[in-house]
Amino acid sequence: MSQHEHLAFAPPVDPGLGRAWAMAVLVHFLLILALTWGVTWRNQPQDVAVEAELWSSVPEPVAQRNAEPLPVPAPTEIKPETPPKPVEPVKPPSPSTVQPAPPDKAKIEADIAIDKQKKKEALERERQADIEKKAAKAKEEDIRLKEASAKKAAEEKEKKAVQEREEAKRLEERKHKEEETKHKEEETKHKEEEIKRKEEEAKRLEEETKRKEETAKRKEEEAKEKKETEERRQEQIKRLKGLGETSTGPTDKASAAKASAPSGTYLGRLRARVKPNITFPDSQLQSVKGNPEAEVEVTCSPTGEITSKKLIRSSGNPAWDEAVLNAIEKTGTLPRDESGNMPPKISFGFKPRD
After folding, report:
1. DSSP E strands: which ranges in the chain?
2. What is the pLDDT of residues 50-87, one digit of tens each?
3. Inter-CA distances, 232 with 229, 299, 326, Å
């Protein structure tokens, strides 16, 4: 490839390259001049006085509840004196080759102090706001706790009052039920006592009627017994008279009848002789109604030995009749009468309740 062909494919030459180099040289020259002037200016005595008044807030104690925060005095803005205006450099063509102007140290320090003061004041305001926020929150919490405590106390009081009312109601109901139960028990007891009294009265009347009936019956039986005893006595007298008339003459009939008739005392002696031999349990005696009499006829030898016996009138109770006959059998011998005679046949009776 020839040189001409090579140049044909090369990039075109920048037409402003010469001006760019000239501008670069000029800028470097001005930069060196500014640096030299700055170093010379720093070495010269500085008569410019800069005053800065800084305010520092004294830490305040924790604010009490419901206390208004103290106002923070506004800091005085310090404006440093403006240094002499440097020569404005020519704008460099390229940022990579332009050097920045030296900063103003006093202004920077003043700005730093102001920033620190502002930050400190901001922190103080934040701290104060945080304290106030915490105080307000604590106050709200205290109010909330008090309200909750008051609400809880009111609920407890209401609950206690409800429980007391319910307990009083239960006690009243229980007392009412106990009174009703007691009243019913008293009524039942009164009714039972009335029924018992009526039963006792009826029983008493029945017993009294029964006793009257038994008394009347006993009197009737005694009268009947007395009558029957008298009839038997008359019959024995007649029988003895007949025997006397057969064995003796007519002149001795009256004396024989008188002598042969058993007296009431003799009959009592006979009963007393036989009665201890009667065996009749109380259990059987309870089943006997009234006081019936079992009458027997006993045949004796002249010596008083019982030779035979028979039931001539039953009491209506076979057990009592049998007990009387067994007692006579067990007795064996009967005593003589007051005159020393021994009647050949004797009739007498026994009652279970005599």
Report:
1. 294-300, 306-313, 345-350
2. 565 555 554 555 445 544 555 555 555 555 555 555 55
3. 5, 15, 23
* CA distance from start to end of the chain: 189
Domain at 262-354: CATH architecture: 2-Layer Sandwich (3.30)
User: Looking at the chain, how many residues does it have?
Assistant: 354
Closest CA to 25 of 87, 94, 103: 94
Determine the Cα–Cα distance for residues 18 and 258; give it in Å rounded to an integer.
Answer: 214
The pTM of the whole model exceeds 0.90: no
d(CA 235, CA 261): 10
Amino acid at 280: F
Q: Hey, what are 40's tokens?
A: 């010379």
Angle, in degrees to the nearest 10, between helices 318-331 and 264-274: 90
Distance from C-alpha of 193 to C-alpha of 187, rounded to nearest angstrom? 10
Q: What is the DSSP letter of 97?
A: G
As a whole number of angstroms, the distance between CA 278 and CA 301 comes to 23
142 SS3 class: helix
**Contact predicate 303/342, CB 8 Å:** yes
C-alpha separations of 233 from 252, 267, 301, 344 in Å: 20, 10, 20, 14
| 3-state SS assignment for residue 282 | helix
Q: Which two three-digit tokens encode residue 7?
A: 């140049």
